[in-house]
Amino acid sequence: MTNSLLNIGRTGLQVSQNQLNTTGNNITNANTPGYSRQRVDVVTQDSFSTSAGFIGTGAKAVDIERVVNQFVIEQVRTSGSAFSQLEEYSTKLSHLDNLLANESSGMSGVLNSFTAAVATASDDPASLPARESVLAQSRILAERFNTLDKTMNDIADGINDELESTTQQINILANAIGSLNQQIVESTGNSNIQAPNSLFDQRDELLRELSSLVNVSVVNEGNGNANIFFGNGQSLVVGSTTYEVMAIQGEEDPSRYDIAIQDGGTLKTITKDVTGGKMGGLLEYRQNFLDPAISELGQMAITIADTMNRIQSGGLDLEGHYGAELFRDINDRESTLERVAYHSGNQSPNDRVISVEITDTSKLSSGNFQMRLSGGAPSVFEVLDSSGNVVKTGGLDGVFPQTIEMDGFNIKLESGNFSAGDQFLIKPTHNGAANISLTGIQADGLAFAQPIVTGTSSGNTGNGSISKGNVVSAVDSKTGELLPSFQKAGELAPPLIIRFTSETSYDVLDNTDPSNPVSLVPPLENLPFTPGISNEILPGNTGQTFMISDGFNAGRTPLSTEIQSGPIGTEASNAIVEEVITISRPLDNGKIETQNLVIPQGQSAQAAAALLSEANGVSATASSYAELNVKDNGTGTDFELYLNGKQLTLSQPNLLGDLPSPMTNDYLADAINADGNLQAQGIRAVSDGNSVKIYSNQGVDLKFQVEGGGGDSVEFKGNKPASALGTVDVNNPINFNAGGPNSFNLDLFDGPGGASNPRTVELEGSFSDTELLLQHVQTQVDKAFGEAGKVVVAQNADGTIRFDTVDNDMSTQLRVTGPLGADPLGMAAAVGQGTLRPDDIIEVNGVGGGNVQALTFAGEVSVTMEDGYSLSSDAASQGNFFGQNSTAQSAFMGYGLTISGNPDKGDEFTVDFNTDGHSDNRNAQALINLMSEQTVGGQASFQKAYSQIVEKVATETFEAKSNRDAAKVVYEQSVAQRNSISAVNLDEEAANLIKFEQIYNASSQVISVSRQIFDTLLGIF
């Protein structure tokens, strides 16, 4: 019994001593970071059996364990990672918010100051000080863009540095955790040794610190290892093995660091999978707000530079010249190349050259795009938006350069070895704010006036009024070149006259020769007008294109085989054959939408235009033209001429005076213009005595019948010029210097009274480029005549050169004479032909006996298509209304104007060049109006676009702060919960210390009693 009591006391001493030591250790580490309170687990030792029953043998300490809850520890890590991410995110957003919203650093103030400066200058457009102020504000505007862009890119560079620093901290922590794993496994290798609590505490604290940098998941193994994973399950620590995390130059964009992890010999990029912690906050901020803000600011800068430059180019400066660019060209070579980043994984050699050209800022978005190539050659491309959606796909033919058209910009694959798997980041607007800058323009070069001036004819009888007109854009949005209207310095090409053909219809004509206005190309005739309201007179859509029917059968003079003989009333068919027209439009998904229209055989241009106008995205008009010269000998069978069933040679003394004999061209023209039925068909005639020009602005067939004796005839012609043809294929190299001097003479018989007046065209230089050769010859022809617009140089299908007269009247003549020198163009055949007339003149003779010769002129069709639409024809090689290779041109003239009120038939209005624009402020007003127009992406003004950037950042900053505050509460609650379980409570430990001391003393007393009993027993024996 004594021995048992002694052992019981001894175990009590041992247990209480462990408890006192553990309590003391808890108290000592009360403020140690990560320390978890420990406790001694005590169990009763086995009892032994006696006759009186089982008697205990004392107690023993089986474990000293940490008082922890793994779920709560995981909560602390998770909530701490979320809080750290939001803390970093909201802090960075707050800095960006302050930068953009601050009056001294943001854009709002400078935009207002620029507008105010232009408004002041608009009040006195000739004032040089006011103009200097506009230049100064323009420079401030550009520099503010530059400053904001640099500041935000400096922030981006700072994020690169922070990512690099964070990866170093992650690696340090990961290595420390791996080392602790090894120590823990070694310490617990013997199953009889309990877990080293201090090592576990240290590891948990390191894991908490690691979670504040990046979100991780922890998997505990039975042997004591804690394996750590992050991203998309990437191993960071496995046992004692660690994997290095690095910040490297981005695969898609070298200026933006990626996060990668080293796994053996493989470096894997995991940026998109990283979340949580400081690193997650940095990446989220950069991806969701910093880079988008840079691109959105760039979109603004590009749009401002482009739209203001366009207004400048469409205006006149103080010297009366077209304005120069105010800001740097948005598509200069450097800018177009900077908009592409090349993926680091693209195959060698790295010789690819891609450029990105902004084509339409109204359609431009601020997002980035990824382009991927696939297929063997490669043969297929895909363009994805920032959300990963495929927005464009198509084929590559392997021949470069090749252009991919996008909304607002073009991607041009210029040269290099493109390979399957290549990837490219397309950044149309990212560098826009960095690249905007003022050109070297001077104050007097600011174009505050507009180049057009309108006028009203003094003979008008109605009360219609015309606006001053307004230049919309002087530049072709696709080519970047000046539109034809503004290509001639000091001129409007062409000046216009607007002639009302009725109270509800009008024609717009080329008024270059005010004595003989002619149709535009394409014609703008028989257009509807609504009296009493303001009517837009000219096409105003910059994306519209037009095609004028240029097929063989459109508007041509009938062939001799197409003339029909018969009794009076015989009508010949027109030359039109059946034709299938296809209207196409590319869709956003890469597919092509088509509409097929069938023009029947014999269809008039009027009916064909009505059919085409039924198609989506298409409107069409028609016109007809013929020229004739009557040759009546005044004897024998009376000469008669019929037009669309109307006898023009009918005696109408009360209306037209006496019927002349022989018949005259003037009488025929008067008869046409006096007939109501012909007028209803839009037919009118103009005679200069030598011929009659007959027009229909409705495009009806012009059906003629000629009756007369053998000496009577009529010459008819269409709209072909006189042409002189060379015989040498100029696609081959031509050396004008060989065998020279080389030249030839062109004679248009435009001397006094139509006398011969030859001009010498001198040829020089050597050419292997056909286009350059044609341009050179055209320049030399214009130089010979002293002006452009007399003879046009063109190329025939067989490669030979052709000289066409601009005039196509029946009286037009062209003659080529020598000396020719070595005749490098092969003009000898043309010299041998003598004087040339247009080759579409046909003479129709009277056949007598009450019979007629009938012929019909088909008209032409002009088609206007909305942006994106195109037209093709299945016509045979010569063409019908359209040819197989008919091409569309821009329908946009660059300016618009309105007419209001109630014009009368015959009223006329003019549009001409503004020769005195010193006091004209319309272009300055256009700049002011631009500031409030929805130009940015076609949806917002400059101020609104900037406000949207600021508001978006401010809203997200507020939300981020709210989320951060909420995350902080959750984190603090998790820490408090952990502390309630694992932290040292000094009051509790002090009480335990007293309790365990009492137990220790009591155990000592048990031992003392046991000794006394033992001594008593010894004394007995």
Fraction of residues in helices? 25-40%
* Main sheet summary: 8 strands, antiparallel
- Percent range for β-strand residues: 25-35%
**Structural class computed from helices and strand pairing:** alpha+beta
Radius of gyration: 46 Å
End-to-end CA span: 16 Å
Mean pLDDT: 89
Shape type: elongated
Give the strand tally. Answer: 54
Contiguous runs where pLDDT drops below 50 for at least 5 residues: none
Our count of helices gives: 17
What does this structure look like?
- 33% of the residues lie in helices and 26% in strands.
- By secondary structure, the chain is of the alpha+beta class.
- Strands 27, 31, 34, 35, 37, 47, 49 and 51 form an eight-stranded antiparallel sheet that branches. Strands 12-19-14-15-16 form a five-stranded antiparallel sheet. Strands 20-54-23-24-25 form a five-stranded antiparallel sheet, with no helix packed on it.
- A hairpin with a 2-residue loop joins strand 17 and strand 18.
